Amino acid sequence: xxxxxxxxxxxxxxxxxxxxxxxxxxxxxxxxxxxxxxxxxxxxxxxxxxxxxxxxxxxxxxxxxxxxxxxxxxxxxxxxxxxxxxxxxxxxxxxxxxxxxxxxxxxxxxxxxxxxxxxxxxxxxxxxxxxxxxxxxxxxxxxxxxxxxxxxxxxxxxxxxxxxxxxxxxxxxxxxxxxxxxxxxxxxxxxxxxxxxxxxxxxxxxxxxxxxxxxxxxxxxxxxxxxxxxxxxxxxxxxxxxxxxxxxxxxxxxxxxxxxxxxxxxxxxxxxxxxxxxxxxxxxxxxxxxxxxxxxxxxxxxxxxxxxxxxxxxxxxxxxxxxxxxxxxxxxxxxxxxxxxxxxxxxxxxxxxxxxxxxxxxxxxxxxxxxxxxxxxxxxxxxxxxxxxxxxxxxxxxxxxxxxxxxxxxxxxxxxxxxxxxxxxxxxxxxxxxxxxxxxxxxxxxxxxxxxxxxxxxxxxxxxxxxxxxxxxxxxxxxxxxxx
Amino acid sequence: xxxxxxxxxxxxxxxxxxxxxxxxxxxxxxxxxxxxxxxxxxxxxxxxxxxxxxxxxxxxxxxxxxxxxxxxxxxxxxxxxxxxxxxxxxxxxxxxxxxxxxxxxxxxxxxxxxxxxxxxxxxxxxxxxxxxxxxxx
Lengths: 484, 137
What we know:
The complex is a heterodimer. By secondary structure, chain A is mainly alpha-helical. Helices cover 73% and strands 0% of the residues of chain A. The radius of gyration of chain A is 23 Å and the shape is globular. Chain B contains 5 helices and 5 strands, in the order αααβαββαββ. In chain B, β4 (119-124) and β5 (129-134) form a beta hairpin. Classes of the chains: A mainly alpha, B alpha/beta.
């Protein structure tokens, strides 16, 4: 019961803080705004709760009463700030005036049916495989058990004796599962399952909601449908790994940076984007790379568009938002788990030598190609679906791509390139590493890729007769007939 | 306009078809493979050892299975998960632990293992599992 309350408190806490930071009352349609706020709130709340729990573990105060007490204090301070906030004009509503696509109701129906089916499949899989896949019980949930253990057992989670796991991995998902287990007073199977499913649900919610706000309802719904066809991602969603949570934080960073462009007061949404980027860094090592690249790309694009001063003006909010959790990650890496990164376990010359080995390049290209095919099933493959949309709906001209699209494409592309570079120099057996990780890396980047793709795809509303024009046309015709 | 409508229609139908396919394949997989790594069984299997060693202990591990073999790695990691929050480590020269668990794929020669690693048998569970204590030197 206390564990369920602790999930609810984490989610509601996140929601309250997101509402405080992002003044979105003016955005339309309302359902999309609620979807975005809900998804950001749940993911942000889980991240915040994980950080707080880890700090409580460090100071030896991770007791259920303290956990709940801190939650209530955080919520109280958010409500206090909410009541004292300045009345600023609401953000404009970019989608409000845009006429809709007349078949959106049908897209909604199909998307809803698909989501129900996917949800049922996830629940069924979680029931028959409650401990998740290999890394779930050998890494993530194992370390959650250490964090929730008695006395100094938490140190086992970062112990150099933990030879066959990864003591250097950040602890967001393990920390949140540990928090639930601490509040439950045991280690019920449902805690990591619920954590994984929450993140898995937040990804399509954020993708559909944010694209609807920025590009119109049909873009959001179509992105949701293409997401549903992304079998590789759907499989990862119930593995209890940290890759789906990481993909959520990637997407949240990109979405908030995009929403900030249309916000009248962009400082807070940008700071929130920074928070989500840093939560990605607290989720997995790859998140550190993504956060660094996202911040760098944002700064460089701002510099190119409006000069150094203007770029720094906005970038500092992103940096400010990212700072607190980044400090936690830095402290973890420097003091609790120093120098254990796998890529460092070899001489520099060895790594450089590998860069020139073309058989390694070929093996990586082959694995990436094979995994690209595994993204979906047959004709329902998500890249086939995107291809159909490119051909039939079209792509905007590159000069019309907004900064959010360029930021997303650049950040996702560069992160992918870094992943490829790590494969090149890995001290592990390359084929083993490719075989056990490429799918997960695709899952991490896939929602961000879809985000970028739907930002550059043309809007269906612009290609077909919008719903609002039809009644208008009929009225005009009727008026015309009445004339003598 | 027609082209865009056809495209959206095709994407919608193909996406739903993909979801149905995903459901069908997953349901079939779930029928054949349940708790593939038998973690539930491991949790039950090591319950009695959990009640013997303190929760924050570092526990040694001896086995006739090598970690390099997938079955050996799976046995070690599943035992590690079942015994957590105790930390499981392979017994090595110079590594000091009080409690040591043994997991064996074949009936073990317990006398030999005790002599080899300086251990004293606390309990032989008789199903390829044993608990040892390090002999005071």
